[in-house]
C-alpha cells in the first residue's frame, strides 16, 4: 500500500466540502468574533473618566453644577484642567452663603463625567487618585492571564488533554471567574478573578482555530485565516456599540458572559483533532472522525478499514519531538530565534500602546476605538501585499521605518486632536501590518517539528511585554513621550529585521538543519522580491552546508524537482 500523508487522506474524504464550510463559519469565524469582543470589553470597563471632588453644599446655594465646580475645585498648576484629588475648604456664612478659603484638602468622595459611560470599575469603586493605578493593574492582569495561559494550556492540551477538552476547560474558566468578578468589589479578589477569566481567551481561540485548520485543505487555510482576522476585527468594532448601548461595566461583562453559551455550543460542533489523536496512538478515534467528515461531505467509497490502515502507517512515520535546547547546536537558526523574540517584544508594545490608549481625544472613547479597530481590515490587505511582492524582510524593514516616522509625527501633533486621531489611526494600520508579517516569518522560519511551539513561544514573549503597556499609557499623561518611545522601538525592529533570512517562495523547512541553512541559500546581501525570486535557490539542497558545518542530507525529492523546474523556467 502506498504511504500517504494526512493531507492526502483528508483530500480523499473531502478537504473543502460542507463539513469544512461549517467549520469555517460556525467555529473559526464566530469564535473569533466573540473572543475579539470579549477581549476588547476589558478596555472599556477599566476606563477612568474625568473626575473631581464632590463638595457638599451646592444644593444649599444658588449655583449651577458648573459654577459650583469652578468655585470649589482648584485649577492645576499648568492651568489646563481642574485638580482631581483636591478641593478648596468651604466655609458658610449665615448658614447659606459659601465662602472659599485658599486652603485645600484631599477628596473624600468624587463626581464623575458620566456623559459617555455611566459606570466603570473606577466610578463604582472610586479607584481614583491614590487608587488610580487599580484600573491599570486590572488591565495588566487581563493581559498577564492571557500570556501565562498561552504558555501553559496549549502545552497541557498537546501533552495530556487534547485540544477539544482544553477548549472546554478554558470556557469554564472564563464563565466562572467572569461571573465572580461581576459581583466582587474587593480589589485583590477582583484582580485575581480577572486574571483567571482572561486565561481563557488565547486558549479558546487557538484550540478552535487549530482544530479547524487541520481539517481544511492546505490551499484554503489562508482563506480561513483571513476570515478569522476579519471576524476578530468585527468583534472589536462591535465592542464600541456594546459599550455605548450598555453604558455600565456590569452590563458589558454580563453580555460577555452570555456569549459563552455559544462557545459551549461550539464544543459539540467540533471534533477532537485527528492529528493529535494520531500522535497519541488513538487511531480508531481518528478514523471515526474522518468517516464522519466523509459522510457530511457525501463522499462515497470511504472505508473505515482502509482509513485506519493508512493512519496507522502515518503514525509509524511521525518524527521525534524536538526541544528548544537543541536549537543551540544550530547557530544561525538560534540567532534568528533571538531576533524574532526581540522584534516580537517591541512590536507588541507598539501595538499595545496604540490599541489600548483609546482616550487620547477626551470623551471620544467610542469613536477612537471604533476607528482604530477599523484599521485592522486594510492592515491585513497591505500586510499581505507587502510580504507577497516586496518579500518578507524588505516589507518588515519598510513597515517598521514608516511606523517610526509616523510615531515622530504623532509626538509633534499631539496638540491638534483631529490630526492626532488621523496619525494614530495610521499607526494602528502600520503596527498591525507589522505583526501580520512577523507571524508569517515565524511560521516560515521555524521547522515543522517545532513550528506550533515556536509560534506559541513568540506569542508568550510578546504578550509578556504587552502587559506593561497600561503602565506606559498611564505614566505618559499626554506629554507625547510614549510616541517617542514607540519611535525608538519601531526603528530598532527595522534594524533587527535586516539579518532575518528571506523566505519568499521557500518551502517550509522540515528539520532544524533545513531551517539553519536558509540563510546560506538566501544571502543577506541580496534583495529578494517577487520579481526576481526565481533567480535564487528556493530550498536547501543536497550537499548544502549549514552554519554548524553539517550537511543537509534529507532534502526531499519534491524539493529537488521544484528546483529543477525553476531552473527550466529561467532558461
From TrEMBL:
It comes from the Eukaryota. Its main location: membrane. It is found in: Membrane. One of its GO terms (molecular function) is transmembrane transporter activity. InterPro entries: MFS_dom, MFS_sugar_transport-like, MFS_trans_sf. It is a multi-pass membrane protein. The keyword Nucleotide-binding does not apply. The chain crosses the membrane at residues 23-45, 134-155, 167-185, 333-354, 366-387, 394-413, 419-440, 452-473. Keywords: Membrane, Transmembrane, Transmembrane helix. GO terms for cellular component: membrane. PANTHER family: SOLUTE CARRIER FAMILY 22 MEMBER. This is Solute carrier family 22 member 5-like. It comes from Hyalella azteca (Amphipod). The gene is LOC108682454.
Amino acid at each position: 500500500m502506498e504511504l500517504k500523508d494526512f493531507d492526502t487522506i483528508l483530500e480523499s474524504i473531502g478537504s473543502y466540502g460542507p463539513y469544512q464550510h461549517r467549520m469555517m463559519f460556525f467555529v473559526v469565524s464566530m469564535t473569533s468574533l466573540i473572543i475579539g469582543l470579549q477581549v476588547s470589553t476589558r478596555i472599556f470597563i477599566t476606563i477612568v473618566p474625568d473626575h473631581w471632588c464632590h463638595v457638599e453644599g451646592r444644593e444649599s446655594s444658588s449655583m449651577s453644577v458648573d459654577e459650583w465646580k469652578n468655585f470649589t475645585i482648584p485649577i492645576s498648576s499648568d492651568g489646563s484642567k481642574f485638580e482631581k484629588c483636591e478641593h478648596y475648604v468651604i466655609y458658610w456664612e449665615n448658614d447659606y452663603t459659601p465662602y472659599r478659603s485658599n486652603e485645600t484638602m484631599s477628596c473624600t468622595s468624587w463626581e464623575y463625567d458620566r456623559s459617555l459611560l455611566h459606570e466603570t470599575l473606577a466610578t463604582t469603586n472610586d479607584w481614583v487618585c491614590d487608587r488610580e493605578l487599580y484600573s491599570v493593574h486590572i488591565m495588566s492582569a487581563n493581559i498577564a492571564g492571557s500570556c501565562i495561559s498561552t504558555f501553559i494550556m496549549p502545552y497541557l492540551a498537546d501533552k495530556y488533554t487534547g485540544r477539544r477538552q482544553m477548549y472546554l476547560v478554558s470556557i469554564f474558566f472564563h464563565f466562572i471567574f467572569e461571573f465572580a468578578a461581576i459581583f466582587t468589589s474587593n480589589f485583590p479578589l477582583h484582580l485575581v478573578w480577572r486574571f483567571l477569566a482572561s486565561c481563557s481567551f488565547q486558549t479558546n481561540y487557538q484550540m478552535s482555530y487549530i482544530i479547524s485548520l487541520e481539517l481544511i485543505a492546505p490551499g484554503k487555510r489562508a482563506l480561513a485565516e483571513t476570515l478569522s482576522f476579519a471576524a476578530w476585527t468585527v468583534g472589536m468594532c462591535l465592542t464600541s456599540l456594546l459599550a455605548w448601548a450598555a453604558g455600565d461595566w456590569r452590563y458589558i461583562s454580563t453580555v460577555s458572559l452570555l456569549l459563552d453559551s455559544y462557545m459551549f455550543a461550539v464544543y459539540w460542533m467540533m471534533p477532537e483533532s485527528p492529528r493529535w489523536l494520531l500522535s497519541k496512538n488513538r487511531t480508531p478515534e481518528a478514523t471515526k472522525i474522518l468517516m464522519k467528515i466523509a459522510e457530511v461531505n457525501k463522499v462515497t467509497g470511504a472505508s473505515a478499514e482502509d482509513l485506519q490502515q493508512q493512519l496507522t502507517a502515518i503514525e509509524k512515520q511521525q518524527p521525534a519531538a524536538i526541544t528548544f535546547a537543541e536549537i543551540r547546536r544550530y547557530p544561525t537558526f538560534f540567532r534568528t530565534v533571538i531576533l524574532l523574540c526581540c522584534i516580537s517584544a517591541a512590536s507588541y508594545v507598539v501595538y499595545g500602546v496604540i490599541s489600548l490608549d483609546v482616550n487620547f481625544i477626551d470623551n471620544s472613547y467610542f469613536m477612537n476605538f471604533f476607528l482604530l479597530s477599523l484599521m485592522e481590515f486594510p492592515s491585513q490587505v497591505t500586510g499581505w501585499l507587502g510580504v507577497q511582492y516586496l518579500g518578507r524582510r524588505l516589507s518588515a524593514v519598510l513597515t517598521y521605518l514608516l511606523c517610526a516616522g509616523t510615531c515622530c509625527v504623532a509626538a509633534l501633533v499631539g496638540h491638534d486632536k483631529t490630526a492626532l486621531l488621523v496619525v494614530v489611526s495610521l499607526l494602528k494600520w502600520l503596527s498591525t501590518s507589522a505583526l501580520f508579517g512577523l507571524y508569517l516569518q515565524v511560521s516560515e522560519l521555524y521547522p515543522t517539528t517545532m513550528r506550533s511551539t515556536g509560534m506559541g513561544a513568540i506569542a508568550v514573549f510578546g504578550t509578556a511585554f504587552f502587559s506593561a503597556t497600561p503602565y506606559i499609557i498611564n505614566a505618559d499623561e499626554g506629554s507625547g513621550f510614549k510616541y517617542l518611545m514607540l519611535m525608538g522601538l519601531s526603528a530598532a525592529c527595522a534594524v533587527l529585521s535586516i539579518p532575518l533570512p528571506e523566505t519568499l517562495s521557500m518551502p517550509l523547512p522540515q528539520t532544524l538543519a533545513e531551517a539553519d541553512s536558509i540563510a546560506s541559500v538566501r544571502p543577506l546581501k541580496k534583495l529578494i522580491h517577487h520579481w526576481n525570486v526565481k533567480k535564487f535557490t528556493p530550498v536547501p539542497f543536497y550537499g548544502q552546508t549549514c552554519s554548524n558545518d553539517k550537511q543537509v542530507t534529507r532534502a526531499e525529492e519534491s524539493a529537488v524537482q521544484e528546483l529543477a523546474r525553476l531552473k527550466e523556467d529561467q532558461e
